[in-house]
Amino acid sequence: ANTFHLSTTLTFVPHWSLFAESIFTGKKYASGDDENVGEGIPAYVIFNGSIGYHYKRVDLRFRVNNILNCYYNAYASLVSSGESSTEYFYPAPGRTFMLTMSVNLW
Q1: Is residue 53 predicted with pLDDT exceeding 90?
Q2: Rounded CA gap, 24 and 90, in Å?
Q3: What's the CA gap between 46 and 88, in Å, rounded?
Q4: For the chain, N or C: smaller number of CB within 10 Å?
Q5: What share of the chain is helix, strand, coil (3-state, %, to 5)?
Q6: What is the 3-state secondary structure (H, E, C) of 24-62?
Q7: CA 55: distance to chain centroid?
Q8: Four-point Cα dihedral 70, 88, 23, 96, nearest 10
Q9: Residue 41: Cβ within 10 Å count
Q10: CA of 23: how far to CAs of 6, 36, 46, in Å?
Q11: Which H or E run includes 6?
């Protein structure tokens, strides 16, 4: 699958930063679908972002992945049995949140 990733970081006042990204993933065929005959996973775009605070040796960051809570499948598998085949789809997580802290010790 083709993937296009675009991101930017903006420091707007001392100690604060914003991060935004978009990730486009083109159509993917299922694992095991060597002839690309199955439905596959359609193309999708997700948007992620974060806000960060940096002071001396400490970084705090709050991140949101899949901001628009888009439904998409991250993986697909094609299982063949005789003349029949079935595609199984594995959904990606919806909107997720992450809070991180890092400390630079030296």
Answers
A1: yes
A2: 18
A3: 22
A4: C
A5: 0, 65, 35
A6: EECCECCECCCCCCCCCECCEEEEEEEEEEEECCEEEEE
A7: 28
A8: 50
A9: 22
A10: 7, 23, 5
A11: strand 3-13
Cα dihedral sign for 25, 30, 31, 35? negative
- The per-residue pLDDT for 58 is 96
Q: How many helices (H) and strands (E) does the chain have?
A: 0, 7
Q: Which residues of 2-14 are buried (b: 16+ CB within 10 A; e: fewer)?
A: eeeeeeeeeeeee
Average pLDDT over residues 12-41: 91
pLDDT-based confidence at residue 72 (cuts at 50, 70, 90):
very high
CA dist 19 → 3, 51, 99 (Å): 19, 6, 14
- Tally of CB atoms within 10 A around 76: 19
